[in-house]
Amino acid sequence: MSEFKRISPQQAQELRTQGAVVVDIRDPQSFANGHISGSRHLDNHSLHDFISHADLDAPLIVSCYHGNSSQGAAAYLVGQGFSEVYSLDGGFELWRATYPSETAQSSEE
C-alpha cells in the first residue's frame, strides 16, 4: 500500500478485532473525554517515540474529530514507512455514535 485508505467505522471495527493499532490525533482534552477503546493518543510530542517503536507492517487506523485531519496524518504516516494505514471516515464522532460501548475515557489507555 503506497497510500492510505479511508474506511468506515464498521471496517475499522473489523480491523481492530484483527489487531490493528488505533491512534487518535485530537487534542489531549478531547482524547481524555472520550476515545476509541484501546487507542493511543498521538501528537507532536509522542510521534517520534510511536514511530520508532511501531510495527510498520501492522495495520494502523488514524482517528480525529470528523475524519478530515486524519487523512493528512495518515498520508504523513505512510511517508514514514507504515505500509497499511487507514483514515477513519467520520472520525471519533461517528465512531462514538456507531459503537458507544467501544469508547473509553481517561488520558491513559
Automatic annotation (TrEMBL):
The gene is glpE. It is an enzyme of class 2 (transferase). CDD domains: GlpE_ST. PANTHER family: FAD-DEPENDENT OXIDOREDUCTASE (PTHR43031), THIOSULFATE SULFURTRANSFERASE GLPE (PTHR43031:SF6). The lineage of its organism: Bacteria, Pseudomonadati, Pseudomonadota, Gammaproteobacteria, Pseudomonadales. It holds the Pfam family Rhodanese. It is found in: Cytoplasm. This is Thiosulfate sulfurtransferase GlpE. Residues 16-104 form the Rhodanese domain. It comes from Ectopseudomonas toyotomiensis. Belongs to the GlpE family. Keywords: Cytoplasm, Transferase. It catalyses: thiosulfate + [thioredoxin]-dithiol = [thioredoxin]-disulfide + hydrogen sulfide + sulfite + 2 H(+); thiosulfate + hydrogen cyanide = thiocyanate + sulfite + 2 H(+). Its main location: cytoplasm. The keyword Oxidoreductase does not apply. The active site is at residue 64. GO terms for molecular function: thiosulfate-cyanide sulfurtransferase activity.
